[in-house]
Amino acid sequence: MNNGKPDISSYIKQLRTEKGYTHLKLSRLSNVSQPYLSQIEAGTRKPSIDILRKLSTALESDFYELARIAGYYTDEEVIEMKGVKSVLDSVGVEVINERLLSSSLDSFKKREYPQIEDYLLSEKPLYANKHLLTQQEKKILYKIITALFEESEVNYPSDEEILKLHEEEREMKIKMNDFIKRKEEERREEIQIAKRIENEKLNN
Question: Which pLDDT tens digit goes with each residue over 154-176?
């Protein structure tokens, strides 16, 4: 303990003791070597993130709490990461991947810098005061609006500016996609460890 707060070594030892696990059993369940476990509990070696993930599954404890106590995450980061995990669990990795990487330059432009003609000159239904406009009515509206703003300053972003912003968004999405892939790999590993734990319980 440290100033009334648990340190990672004593916390892991407490969890192991509460489970009634020996170092050997925890080693088998988590696939972490006995010497490494002993060093962690003795406080001579700090567990890595990957090791904490394995131990959290084997001990059936909250990984984010272990990581927080070990000093890898702040309270705010734990809340944020739990929120991300909740989204992944509820929506599904495949769906998120598809949405993240599906944005083309054209769709980006229409989403971030929409022009009214995109609506008025399209075949999509458009309403005014709950009245469905005909194509002819939409063309009339387009002519009126064009005339109204004919003398207005042109301040629409250049193609170069839009392309730069789109690339920045793509880079962000790729990073998020890589993060999601890592979380998916971690989830597979957790499932494997959970199966190992279940087999161990059945054999005992």
Answer: 888 888 888 888 788 778 777 77
